[in-house]
């Protein structure tokens, strides 16, 4: 799966979790850009990613993912979804 496909999947999940239009989400979208993306929202996002992509994240990975691009890079590194 290439970067574009991974970004599309992550964008769809982010949009769903935070009830945000997908066109407002890009690789540089970070917590400060989305009102509902607070610390609890961050955990909810990663739970949704885990469930929908059938993957498990380590705590350190969750802590170091600061924007959508970081999440895409994490998934690309693991060669998923």
Tell me what you see in this structure.
The protein is mostly helical and 81 residues long. The model has no long low-confidence stretch (mean pLDDT 94).
Find the CATH superfamily.
ACP-like
Q: Compute the number of strand runs.
A: 0
Quaternary class: single chain
How many helical stretches?
A: 4
* Rounded Rg: 11 Å
- Give the low-confidence spans: none
Q: What is the domain tally? A: 1
Net shape = globular
Reported by name, the CATH topology is: Non-ribosomal Peptide Synthetase Peptidyl Carrier Protein, Chain A
CATH architecture: Orthogonal Bundle
Helix/strand-derived category reads mainly alpha
List keywords for this structure.
single chain, 81 residues, mainly alpha, Non-ribosomal Peptide Synthetase Peptidyl Carrier Protein, Chain A, 4 helices, 0% strand
Short account of what is shown:
The chain is mainly alpha-helical and 81 residues long. Helix content is 58%, strand content 0%.
């Amino acid at each position: 799966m290439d970067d574009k496909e991974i970004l599309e999947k992550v964008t769809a999940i982010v949009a769903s979790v935070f009830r945000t239009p997908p066109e407002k989400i890009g690789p540089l979208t970070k917590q400060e850009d989305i009102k509902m993306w607070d610390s609890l929202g961050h955990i909810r996002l990663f739970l949704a990613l885990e469930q929908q992509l059938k993957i498990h994240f380590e705590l350190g990975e969750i802590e170091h993912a600061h924007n959508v691009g970081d999440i895409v890079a994490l998934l690309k590194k693991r060669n998923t979804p």
